[in-house]
Amino acid sequence: MSFEIAFGTLEIGLIYALVSLGVLISFRMLDFPDLTADGSFPLGGAVCGLCLYMGVNPWLATLYGALAGACAGMITAWLYVRLNILQLLASIIVMIGLYSINLRILGLAPFLKHETPRMAGSPNLPLLDADTIFKPFINSDYSNQYFVQPLMVLGFVIVCWLLLNAFLNTQQGLALRATGANARMARSQGIATGRTIIIGMAISNALIALGGAIFVQTQGNADISIGVGTIVIGLAAVIIGESLFPAKRMWLITLSVIFGSLIYRFFIAVALGNETLQNIGIGTEDLNMITAILVTLALILPKQIKKWLKRRKGATT
Length: 317
Prior knowledge:
Layout: H1 3-29, H2 37-53, H3 58-81, H4 87-112, E1 124-126, H5 145-168, H6 171-181, H7 183-188, H8 193-219, E2 221-223, H9 230-244, H10 250-273, H11 275-279, H12 287-316
Antiparallel strand pairs: 1-2
Helix pairs in contact: 1-5, 1-8, 1-9, 1-10, 2-3, 2-4, 2-8, 3-4, 3-8, 5-10, 6-8, 9-10, 9-12, 10-12
């Protein structure tokens, strides 16, 4: 694996580390099966892309993308908390609605700049000439692009990780964890569980949308299809991280999820670049199948190894 490919894999792994941190909040801490991720990831990218196309400051555009994701998460939680719609169904409703909204957002920029006579949806938005958060730090010949972008994304991940850990140790953060562990007990202790779920889902989807906003700036275009499989990738990173690096302290749990995302991406890169697998016909189109196999192995292997060690210990005593 060349340095360019390794840094590219690191960059994608770090972007999806933000997604996995968001999935950790909804899936593990709040026990909320949230499919909104498949819509909020491209929503962050679409809002950020629209702002960049209109000439908005890239840092503000990235922030707006994350805030849009927070709104999506709050709507999902509101459907569940206030209207008593099942968690999974509420997230599916918002995810489906976001698909149309994202198409509209992507098609809005050319209309606002009078490049098209009527406002219509679009599946993508080119950003090749737009300013990004990376552009001021990249040489004119793009010679340092392959390591500047991963380093800046790493900065985002470290900041988000520190802020998230600080939040989870506040009174509101402890209330969020208590709500996910046992909502009835949390209510009996005076915690407003409904408000806590809304806050948690907003943070979760803000992190996921932030990943989408950064992703479109690394790719040079915003596309409606970038959200397909986002929740699966996030879950894979969470499961791999928890399986390989079991921990009890919160800062270690969040750190293990980040490493899980990196390991997942490097495994995918190695699998897709393996000549033996290529010779038997496995290519990039089999990415989802490889993901499914990897997640299954991460779920099964630790338990099987633990059982094997227990049997071996029993046989020797």
